[in-house]
Write a structure and sequence with these properties.
single chain, mainly alpha, 83% helix, globular
């Protein structure tokens, strides 16, 4: 059977298409499993420790080391490092490339060690500012957990650079496995040591980070020419620093957006802070499986194409990836909105989790789900700028989005009742993310002389119509299912499973009748 088409499609010719598709499939599968484990991880945490101030303290404490990792390394340094490293390898300057890699790895380790020491000393002050709505005892617990987890970014930072190196060599398997090991370690620790209190969970995070780092070392050894030295006098190393500065500012803007949300959430009723984190983690599942996997897979190739000034191929690669991301993220949004309560009940309605906790989390999820398409697109769009070594444009746009989010967050959390404030915070993030994604798309269209806007609009049309039909079918079936099955344990599982099958069938049928070519692209991925 041949795929029906109703409009022109863009393709990436030759072996690059197959390689990118395989890499995207592997990474997407990894992100799917990793996000499933991430959701399971939070479910186990809630089962073991409940949804109260102990878990509020844990999620608050987790944000400090996570912010350190994001700003100093993670995506910031990776997106500055990959274009330079890939360009040197393309020019057969492997010695220079590995000199730069050694410099970056050693600098990351020293930077994180210094930051961890400073954060350890000033953790009480940070917590006083960050969780001002907590009681003194709750802030003390948050400080203790923060100090334990400061070890985490040291190992994750090194692992992020190693992942970038391996992906440049198109070795995606170790980088796909490492996040799974990280989540499994935290899950195991939460179950095995829950009698030791929430501090045991913080130590499990550290163990998971060590294993994340160690999992990738064997594959790195195949080509590594690592040296224990730092050479920031090299031209290539200085180029990374030039690219890194604006990228750090851009990520700082995104972290500020999250921190504004969490600071305001700390003043809401008990459990609201955890509800925000649980809902945020749920939307990270489709964002990671769709946006992050696609962006990670195409970034090394975008860097090589941009270095060779093959911008026509850059446009094709971006258009193909963005269409697939939008095609799948729109139904993910509708599905989570309609099924928010059954999903929350399935994952968290056990132990000390109460119906009130379900409503807290489901209300935040209602609005966070709206952010899935723009946030998935934001994973892809800035990387095109980074591949072209333009880190300033996405930073300016990110700062504008943060300013909008701050204004909306403060306004909405005051407009809504205090008991529903988490919904206002989530809505502010969704609106700001939509503005940021739209702004990035228009900026890239000017930069690349078009990104295939007509194809993207056709994709949005098909995805929206298919999702509307799917949402109606899910809504009609939901009441009978919830009347028949208890909404916890097996009953919640049956409800969600039946609804998912119904939703997939409806969306697939409608988009097939519309002749959506992305449906056949998904089919090809699944057949692989």
């Amino acid at each position: 059977m041949t795929a029906p088409t109703t409009r022109p499609t863009t393709t990436i010719p030759g072996r690059r298409t197959g390689r990118l598709a395989t890499a995207a499939l592997l990474l997407s599968g990894s992100f799917v499993v990793s996000r499933i484990l991430g959701v399971l991880r939070n479910s186990v945490i809630i089962y073991s420790f409940g949804q109260g101030r102990a878990t509020d303290a844990y999620f608050a404490a987790f944000n400090i080391p996570d912010t350190m990792f994001t700003l100093v390394s993670g995506a910031a340094l990776a997106t500055a490092f990959v274009p330079t490293f890939a360009g040197l390898l393309q020019r057969d300057d492997a010695d220079v490339a590995w000199n730069v890699a050694s410099t970056v790895l050693n600098t990351v380790f020293l930077a994180f060690a210094a930051l961890a020491a400073v954060a350890f000393v000033f953790a009480p002050l940070l917590m006083t500012a960050f969780v001002s709505g907590f009681t003194p005892a709750e802030r003390d617990l948050t400080t203790e957990l923060t100090r334990i987890m400061l070890l985490q970014p040291m190992f994750l930072g090194l692992a992020a650079i190693i992942s970038s190196i391996l992906q440049t060599y198109h070795r995606f398997t170790p980088t796909a496995v490492a996040p799974l090991v990280y989540n499994l370690a935290i899950i195991g620790g939460a179950l095995a040591f829950r009698s030791h209190g929430i501090s045991a969970l913080a130590w499990s995070v550290v163990v998971g980070a060590v294993l994340y780092f160690a999992t990738q070392l064997p594959s790195l050894a195949r080509n590594q020419r690592f040296r224990f030295h730092i050479d920031w006098h090299s031209v290539a190393a200085r180029e990374i620093l030039r690219l890194l500065g604006p990228r750090v500012v851009g990520l700082a803007a995104f972290r500020i957006m999250l921190l504004i949300t969490l600071v305001l959430a700390s003043g809401l009723p008990t459990g609201s802070f955890t509800a925000i984190n649980l809902a945020w983690m749920l939307i990270q599942f489709p964002i990671g499986a769709l946006g992050t996997s696609a962006a990670t897979a195409i970034f090394p190739s975008l860097s090589v194409l941009s270095a060779g000034e093959n911008f026509a191929a850059v446009r094709r690669t971006l258009n193909r990836s963005l269409r697939l991301v939008l095609f799948l993220s729109v139904p993910a949004t509708v599905g989570l909105i309609v099924l928010r309560r059954p999903i929350v009940n399935l994952l968290y309605n056990h132990g000390s989790f109460t119906p009130h906790n379900t409503e807290q989390t489901a209300f935040a999820l209602l609005f966070y789900a709206l952010a899935i398409p723009p946030l998935a697109a934001i994973e892809v769009l800035p990387r095109v700028f980074y591949a072209m070594k333009d880190t300033r444009t996405p930073v300016r746009i990110a700062i504008g989005a943060v300013a909008l989010d701050a204004v909306l967050s403060i306004a909405l959390v005051r407009i809504l009742p205090r008991s529903s404030g988490q919904g206002g915070l989530a809505l502010a993030t969704a609106v700001a993310s939509l503005v940021q994604a739209t702004w990035l798309a228009f900026a890239l269209e000017d930069r690349l002389d078009g990104i295939g806007r007509s194809n993207l609009l056709y994709t949005l049309r098909d995805a929206t119509l298919g999702s509307a039909a799917m949402g109606f079918a899910l809504y009609v079936a939901l009441d009978p299912l919830t009347a028949i099955f208890a909404q916890h344990g097996v009953g919640a599982l049956v409800t969600v499973a039946v609804e998912l099958l119904l939703g997939l069938a409806t969306f697939g049928l409608v988009t097939f009748l519309l002749g959506a070519p992305e449906l056949w692209q998904v089919r090809g991925f699944l057949r692989r």
